[in-house]
Amino acid sequence: MSTKPSAGTVCGPASPTAGAQTRLHPLPLGQVRITSGLWHERGEANRLASIPRGLDRLHEAGNLRNLDIAGGLAQGEAEGRIFADSDVYKWLEAAAWEYARTGDEQLLANQLSVTEVVGRAQAEDGYIDSVVQIRENKERYRDLPHSHEHYVAGHLIQAAVAQVRATGRRDLLEVAIRLADHLAATFGPQARDDVDGHPVVEMALVELYRETGTREYLDLAEYFVSARGRGLMASYGREPTYFSDRVPVREATTVEGHAVRAVYLAAGAADVAAETGDAELLAALATQYDSMERGKQYITGGLGSRWEGESFGDPFELPTDRGYAETCAAIGGVQWAWRMLLATGDARYADQIERMLFNGFLAGVSLSGTEYFYVNPLQLRGDAHPEHERSAANGRRGWFDCACCPPNIMRMLSSLGAHVATTTDAGVQIHQYANGTIAAGDLQLDVETAYPWDGRVRVTVRQAPTTPVELAFRVPAWAAGATLDGAAVAAGDYARVSRTYRDGDEIVLDLPMAPRLTRADERVDAVRGCVTIERGPLVYALEQCDQAEGAPVDDLRILPGAPFEVEHRPDLLSGVSVVRTTGRVASPPPAARSPYSTTPADAREEQAGREVSLVAIPYYAWANRGPQPMRVWIPTA
Amino acid sequence: MSTKPSAGTVCGPASPTAGAQTRLHPLPLGQVRITSGLWHERGEANRLASIPRGLDRLHEAGNLRNLDIAGGLAQGEAEGRIFADSDVYKWLEAAAWEYARTGDEQLLANQLSVTEVVGRAQAEDGYIDSVVQIRENKERYRDLPHSHEHYVAGHLIQAAVAQVRATGRRDLLEVAIRLADHLAATFGPQARDDVDGHPVVEMALVELYRETGTREYLDLAEYFVSARGRGLMASYGREPTYFSDRVPVREATTVEGHAVRAVYLAAGAADVAAETGDAELLAALATQYDSMERGKQYITGGLGSRWEGESFGDPFELPTDRGYAETCAAIGGVQWAWRMLLATGDARYADQIERMLFNGFLAGVSLSGTEYFYVNPLQLRGDAHPEHERSAANGRRGWFDCACCPPNIMRMLSSLGAHVATTTDAGVQIHQYANGTIAAGDLQLDVETAYPWDGRVRVTVRQAPTTPVELAFRVPAWAAGATLDGAAVAAGDYARVSRTYRDGDEIVLDLPMAPRLTRADERVDAVRGCVTIERGPLVYALEQCDQAEGAPVDDLRILPGAPFEVEHRPDLLSGVSVVRTTGRVASPPPAARSPYSTTPADAREEQAGREVSLVAIPYYAWANRGPQPMRVWIPTA
């Protein structure tokens, strides 16, 4: 048994090699500690509720039994989806990062016992996918567009890399290496020219290369990235758009098709570009990112506007009610943005991570950590009927038939600290603000803040090298008017202070936290005439139960000029700042036969609607008091 | 061989028995002749292009070969969807109505030869579904939620009823009777308690009862209507909403789930209510119709707002870009409305039929009659990417893998004349206006009109009984200001003139045809701040190729106060009236990174956009010059 690495040396997910072409370098996971505040609380719910309960769910849903059957320890049919194993691997990855964070020995024991189950299921030649091994008569790779066999392998490899980094144990890594060797022997330009319908293995193989130094894994990742857009899905009779297989990655100018697939692929391609120094590939990914942010992303950071195919829509097709915005897509979006941030050092990607984490991602899990949204729309009407398990009208659910999101949330929250800060030769960059500590070599910082409720971030130097060092603070693009030690700093970039620091030095960043009304480009037809309340990094929403006298959310209007009032409510929704402003209740629509009428809109009638106080809560916290009408985009009066 | 019935005696689809509880009675198909104008031209395209080409398509796609295989005349695997036979039957039905209209002997020969193929495929005990017979190892009714076996049977029965009514030939009717007897022996309260996932057999069985007098068929239809909402789909592990199986038909207050299924079921239930005199069932259907019209119908009459499940959305969820509005759903909508009209005599249902026929339905077929839309959205953006066969961004297509719509359009157009007028003891009701003749007993009328291009309808009495008779003219709800012989008449009702008519008497109805701007209820979020141009019964649309200087449709705004100019263009799109008005081209959105901004909307900048002439064409005619940007709802400047 190997020794547990000290927390300060545990590399987190996506740790480029020293030779990688990146501007920024991640900090080891344990070098950032979040000790209080919103992310600490979400991390505790993850540790105390999500992860333990997640293991129970994997037992109950049969995922672990599938592996037992494949390993010869049980008899029976496979349960669940073809990619059932991947949920186990995402849980294992979460458990590993969580162990690095907390050193909980029970969590180590649990992951090692699950690892044993996995190891036993592996075939002699390294192949492993329990559902295929049981259900498909062991016929491998018969329908790669839908079989998810590489996808499952990718999650196993990611879990193995996490395990060895976090625990020092190579148990799962050995399984992963055998599996990766099998893949490398089976697929590629000199073997079978084929690719999985669902990317993720690309990121995983690059990480395995980073961990083991085996160049073959990087080559295979590069092959899988290059294999797309050459007709492989079409050769199975599949329409290629859904699979990100219509256009070669290097030629694509936007994201399309299944959102999670698209962003996982892009993140993997960014990993490949970093390790191979492929500037052309990186540039293509930046173009694609631009296009996504410009016309295919919700204000919550949510990605994917269509239920049909869980996919990106056309540019500016961003419906609120049927927005899909899968929780996994927000996670993949963070993974892609993080890799772009490392590669470019551009603050916009850190802004994007903030937007996705605080809104589209965090809405995916209940405050209790036990229930999940798969789909994250920006509106729920009063008489919405939930006919699908995933419908938000059901409220969050304990688990899903397709349970990709819950363990994905777990691994994201467990490794969140890895996304807070980076280093360069010049110094340290702080991308995300949370109360805690940051250590980078000789430099140790305390970060005091009540962010995102308050915009003041006080950084105190606890230890510093004797030479000058640059501290870089991200000033979010929304934070016009921000100051650093009282001096104005530009929003949408890093404010950098380079000097020789001494113990006890303080730097104070002040981000203006006045609520603001945000509107969308005219081409976003779905929200014409509407605005959103934002405050700091948080998108706000009107939820029915907060509105005075039960004024229906469907009929609320906002008065754009009205003042805001902010109140922090420690008692509400695990502690949130509530934003109040003034609006009106539109007259309920006339009981006409048809909703269409040639009568001109009677603006006066609307204005005659009674004035009400609108109460907005952070979007992420909605539906924690039961599913109910909600809207992010509010029509103006 | 029986004798061909004279056209004047051919009952059309949905012909209630003398004892049925209906206010209005349909006219025999041949008693209404449409001799020129829009519906005549569409009928000719149907006769000369759609129907002949349709038979080729059924050969090419393998539908007829499936029946040949089942009949022992060929060998091989079944091709196409599980319900492939139904496309053949819809074609047979179209051919029958068309034969009644035109007496084309080749069409008779073709339908009899197809009928022979069908007859040979039928099993000894009456069962017939060639795909099940071939592909499913003859295992019948294994998965009724999805097998469509009753659905296929329903279309066979409808075709058989059409054939016997139109041609006098009982060939297909004998097949249908054997099939219906098999169904009656197999399903029902005393046999297997089960129901098909896709309604249509209900309408068919009532019609077979009407044709044969066999009460058992009506009873079975009534059973199938009553069987829903009792958990049968759930017993197969299916979510019931999609199948209209969540709530019993008598208790339902709205439509939900798969739109075509929902409206076919409602139409069948209306047939049952008519024949059984079930006023409670009829009242429930009226409530459901209200709810549909109030919040679940597009201005085009289109039904079904979701691609996911081809289904109705929540109330007021009516996206323009992703509106599904399946062509078949518009047809089912007409069928339901027609039955409600017969039952109640309420002009609103005739208004509804007009709206659906001229817009949501007619857009489903190209002017050439050779290409079809499956999905009929109300907006296509400039950079829409067609990743699905059904996507409107592909333009209309010659056929579909799932080819339910094309032959459905054919049978609707072939039997359109049956929906023009009805009789009561008092007289004749004219519901739809088209140039031609109407005969009802002793009364013969000439109808002269260029409707829908012109609002004048001149009815000349060619023969009249010597006793008083009431002529009732539908005055559409949109036709405020209409006059009958110069006297004001109320819109949204029938204008009735009861007197003793003489040969040569003329009655002139004038419907005001000024273009009008229509807006939607505030709860229809998708079109907030937009208006539609309507003229007469037609919904208009802006199509890219008509706009001056290529101003992008995506950026066009309309000036609500601006005057309209109407020009009839016989040269354009088989002859349409074009509506011109004034708008502006909004500045293209700034090349910002994100579409979201806290900058207040700069209305002045928008108004500074240059003024342009907006050119609108009837929605039904769009995409006949290639797929291109189009929008029905236009933002106001």
Question: What portion of residues of chain A belong to β-strands?
Answer: 15-25%
Counted beta strands of chain A: 23
The structural class of chain A is: alpha+beta
CATH architecture annotation name of the largest domain in chain A: Alpha/alpha barrel
Rg calc of chain A: 24 Å
Task: Report what the structure shows.
Two copies of one chain form a homodimer. By secondary structure, the first copy, chain A, is α+β, with helices and mostly antiparallel strands. Chain A has three domains: 7-419, Alpha/alpha barrel (Glycosyltransferase); 421-510, Immunoglobulin-like, CATH 2.60.40; 516-592 and 601-635, no CATH class. The first copy, chain A, is built from 17 helices and 23 strands. In chain A, strands 3, 14, 15, 16, 17, 18, 19, 21, 22 and 23 form a ten-stranded antiparallel sheet that branches. A seven-stranded antiparallel sheet of chain A has the order 2-6-7-8-13-10-11. The longest helix of chain A is centred in the N-terminal third of the chain and has 23 residues, at 38-60. Chain A is globular and about 75 Å long. The model of chain A has no long low-confidence stretch (mean pLDDT 95). At the A-B interface, helix 13, strand 14, strand 15 and strand 20 of A face helix 13, strand 14, strand 15 and strand 20 of B. Chains A, B: Residues 1-23, 583-608 are annotated as: Disordered. Chains A, B: Residues 515-635 form the Non-reducing end beta-L-arabinofuranosidase-like GH127 C-terminal domain.
